[in-house]
Amino acid sequence: MTVRFLSAGDRALVVEFGDRVDRALSDDVLRLDAILRSSALPGVVETVPTFRSLMVHYDLLATSRADLEFGITGLLDHQSDTRRAATLWRVPVCYEGEFAPDLTEVAQLTGVTPGEVVGLHSAVRYHVYMLGFLPGFPYLGDLPPRLALPRRADPRVRVPAGSVSIATTLTAIYPYESPGGWHLIGATPIRLFDPSRSRPALLAPGDMVQFEPINPAGFAAIKEAIDSGDYQVTSEPIVG
Amino acid sequence: MSAGLKVLTPGLHTTVQDLGRPGYQAIGVPVSGALDSESLRLANALVGNAPGMAALEVLISGPSFEVVAETVRVAIAGAGASLVIDVEKARVEAGQSVTLPRGETVEIVVGRRSACCYLAVEGGIAVPPVLGSASTYTRAALGGLDGRILRHGDVVPLAVARASERAELRRSLPMQATTDQAVRVVLGPQQEFFTKQAVATLLDAEFRISQSADRMGMRLDGPLLHHRAGWDIVSDAIVTGAIQVPGSGQPILLLADHQTTGGYPKIATVVSADLPVVGRRRPGDALRFTAVTVEAAEELCRIEERRLAELVASLEPTTWRPGIDLGSLYDGNLISGVVSGFD
Questions:
Q1: Which among A44, A91, A213, B199 is least buried, having the fewest CB atoms inside 10 angstroms?
Q2: Complex ipTM value
Q3: B74 and B50 in one domain?
């Protein structure tokens, strides 16, 4: 496997597999991540998988870039079947009214009806490429090509927490209120990040997500159940 | 009533910070932690704490407190910073511990030589760790006091209600020089996205830290750094100290609270030995950069670690007690807060 090793200063090494958003690249990145997490390579502090690269943070008092590159190269050549246990999450989304401020515009821009946007968006099982931007913020793909749009020309200063959004070939969920430039086509009541949970981020790179349409009454009911502590997002293990 | 420091005035941006929250960047959680980790470690050593214990990070403008504990031992670290006790009755310079009685009021003065200073308290600050760290990350309300900056009326909870009976400690070696030294960088990881001229400009020109600077990063004013072709890369991971350049060509030096991933090319990355130096720089300060190899950067970091260990090992007991106007004694002494030979 051909990779490039790039220095990000003296405490991180980037293992770059390519320069695109691509499932095969992502699988390579996540495979190396799983191998590194299960191998006790000296000095590795943490790893951060992205669309196309794996960043390996290291303790330079315990190793060096040269030693680390040598160690990782050995792991790359070592054809391993190591895989992270993955989960399919069924995420409830309300695509209606105030929960979907950009749905009409997205329908106009893509030349389909709002109902078809919802149908297309909720028909696909998305791959969790990576988390970033904010704690628990997932980058999911790939969108049905019909829904691909550039980011909004005019980013919002305030995107509400729980917003389900699309841009380019990707879809994402905002765990916190924040600025944002993606198109908002729905909202979920579920909590994507909670540091008091044993697993703070609901989603992990390599997981799958399917969105399940709910109405505003369903949204309110799930929100109430979450607030009283008796709601679990429906999930099932992914085999293979 | 439990022991604490009652906030009389909060200062501009005062937060609880330790050495950060590594281990969760894969789920989008920044490392956070002290901008100037060297001063945090020194402040902790001065009060007898482990180096990574949580302390208060004070940015630009300092808070004031009232002691709500039987006694509390505190120390400030940060170039040019000081502690003013009970409205100018005494001034304690950075690099010296002091024990304060109940009801005493203290004000932290950051001074003009550093953007930040640290107030460490013997026994530490008693906030519950979040994901293994007390560091405050305000964007997601993690750590510290409810994940936010200090406010008027807060009580910063202390782990111990009474200072131990022992001599105060003070620093006897100088701190790392911070003035006018070029900040060392390793080029990349995406220097190939820039013109040769842009890389040369980064290393030749003088930049100035703009007013747009916070714990996430600092925008640098100066010549623009032009991209060779595009500037919109497929997102990858970011490390603290990365210098990313968006389409405008104006570089942004990313600090402790930076996002874990991003879609702009990074032209260079500040070496870890110089991260505390950068953390101290104030808006308006000049910055120059010089390139070193990764191997040289690794060696610089080892040297820095040894130097800090020597600094901590050289702390010496002193019989000084508050009540004397040190401020007037040390006015004009800009090199090393507390002079030797004072005993």
A1: A213
A2: 0.95
A3: yes
Instruction: Give the Cβ contact number of residue B250 at 10 Å.
Output: 17
In whole angstroms, give the CA distance from residue A155 to residue B247: 16
Query: What domain count does chain B have?
Result: 2
Contact: A9, B130; criterion CB under 8 Å: no
Q: Does B246 touch chain A (CB under 8 A)?
A: no
Nearest CA in chain A to B304: A61
CB contact under 8 A, A130 and B261: yes
Better-scored residue on pLDDT, B184 or A240: B184
Chain B: closest CA distance from residue A113 (Å): 30
Residues of chain B in contact with residue A7, where contact means CB-CB under 8 angstroms, are: 186, 188-189, 269, 294
Q: What is the DSSP string of A72-116?
A: HHHHHHS-------EEEEEEEEE-SGGG-TTHHHHHHHHTS-HHH
Question: Peptide bond before A142: cis, by omega within 30 degrees of 0?
Answer: yes
Instruction: Select from A10, A49, A50 the Cβ nearest to the Cβ of B301.
Output: A10
Give the pLDDT confidence of A42-74 residue by residue, as tens digits.
999 999 999 999 999 999 889 999 999 999 999
Domain extent at residue B280: 183-302
pLDDT of residue B144: 98
In a domain, B310, yes or no: no
